[in-house]
Amino acid sequence: MALELDRPDLARSDNFIDGIWQPSGAGAHYDVCDPATGEAIATVADSTAADAQAATVAAHRAFDSWRQQPAAARAKLLKRWHALILEHTEDLARLISREQGKPLAEARGEVAYGASYVDWFAAEAVRSYGDIIPAPVGSKRMLVTKEPVGVVAAITPWNFPLAMIARKIAPALAAGCTVVAKPAEDTPLTALALVALAEEAGLPAGVLNIVTSSREKVADVVGAWLEDARVRKITFTGSTAVGKLLARDSAPTLKRLSLELGGNAPFIVFEDADLDAAVEGLMAAKFRNGGQTCVSPNRVYVQESVYEAFADKLVARVQSLRVGPGDRDDSQIGPMINARAVDKIERHVQDALARGAMLLTGGQRLNGGVTTGPNYYAPTVLGDASHDMALAQDETFGPVVPLFRFRDEEEVVDAANDTPYGLAAYFFSRDVARIWRLAERLQTGLVGINEGALAAESAPFGGIKESGYGREGSRYGLDDYMATKYLCQGNLA
């Protein structure tokens, strides 16, 4: 592997099934490429349905013994895993930056963020309380208990290769479930390293299993889990289109589903807002990971009376961003994940310009100097955007900010909600009455009020409408991995 690590053994390339690192049963492998250069940096197992089935067998076999472990014992193992993740922050950050492209500073932040979920759910493991229900007659005792749902299949995206898998695996293990996991084909190295550290923490064989696959084999691997009744839950972060397929194909076995899907987040700036704070909030929300986040603002609405002033301030900030490879200390925006991503960004920008948008800054691929490579795109601001543009309907998933003018609150609320998605929304205002009105009227699972950074391990993360269902993080995050059981005991006398 063309990457220096303090712990070279974290650079894994095989599947981890039933406590053993092993190649794909078919012996196939595929290349993992650096998005900054397009060059292969590693090869990993290209798994088949048989590998996925072997992982399921191991997880199912390990489930009874793992669920019977005292919650305190499961918490202790998670705490040990958390400590190892933090201990190896630098190696994990290098892996993230190299295979995903984000700057090292952001990658280090992702390690801390992902680790926080492991720590959080270690504590939540011992707080999985039940209830005693007052019985209608004195001869009965009525109780409610919580039990792990069973084997969980975790399918994760490429944009946060450590955080997304950590915040799925940690609650599953805390609840007493066992796991089979498949990381995104573009970014498997970080997930494999994370599992290696879980093994080092002492996780029993079969409790956590991971298989990697190329884009061509994904349907085989995931299909094996969808068809298998022993897999009782699917947790997925990714596109709405794929989420709908998972919901459809899991129906024959009625699996539990947690789906964190696409978004089309509005960001609203009212005339009474602190414009400097709004610009900084937008920068934090939009340009994190180069705009490649599901909660990234996709439509920025600015009230007419402050539109020009806000646009000028925003353009100045965006022009100050430094684009470059993730391993450069001064890089603030790295390469996009692959050429398909850049192609989509370019299509959206060209469509917007053809439909009357004004190019305020950026608007082109970069390939020269420190940005020599196939996947760089300039941070871009477009003025006078309209809802007939592709970028108003579909996530751009890149460093592009379209500015929309609006007249009044009623107009902008209608526009913000005019989408099938409902993951995140943001607005800036100093009007207290308006703050509560909008917080209640915006149709999303997350709302940022004078704030651009929403996520935290203690907060419930998830959407409504076609952005999915289920919640990750917080005290609610354990519920998605547990079943509620009612016990009714009659008089034994």
TrEMBL record:
<dbReference type="InterPro" id="IPR015590">
    <property type="entry name" value="Aldehyde_DH_dom"/>
</dbReference>
<feature type="domain" description="Aldehyde dehydrogenase">
    <location>
        <begin position="21"/>
        <end position="486"/>
    </location>
</feature>
<comment type="similarity">
    <text>Belongs to the aldehyde dehydrogenase family.</text>
</comment>
<dbReference type="InterPro" id="IPR029510">
    <property type="entry name" value="Ald_DH_CS_GLU"/>
</dbReference>
<dbReference type="Pfam" id="PF00171">
    <property type="entry name" value="Aldedh"/>
</dbReference>
<dbReference type="InterPro" id="IPR050740">
    <property type="entry name" value="Aldehyde_DH_Superfamily"/>
</dbReference>
<dbReference type="GO" id="GO:0009450">
    <property type="term" value="P:gamma-aminobutyric acid catabolic process"/>
</dbReference>
<dbReference type="InterPro" id="IPR016161">
    <property type="entry name" value="Ald_DH/histidinol_DH"/>
</dbReference>
<dbReference type="InterPro" id="IPR016162">
    <property type="entry name" value="Ald_DH_N"/>
</dbReference>
<feature type="active site">
    <location>
        <position position="260"/>
    </location>
</feature>
<protein>
    <submittedName>
        <fullName>Succinate-semialdehyde dehydrogenase (NADP(+))</fullName>
        <ecNumber>1.2.1.16</ecNumber>
    </submittedName>
</protein>
<dbReference type="InterPro" id="IPR010102">
    <property type="entry name" value="Succ_semiAld_DH"/>
</dbReference>
<dbReference type="InterPro" id="IPR016163">
    <property type="entry name" value="Ald_DH_C"/>
</dbReference>
<dbReference type="GO" id="GO:0004777">
    <property type="term" value="F:succinate-semialdehyde dehydrogenase (NAD+) activity"/>
</dbReference>
<keyword id="KW-0560">Oxidoreductase</keyword>
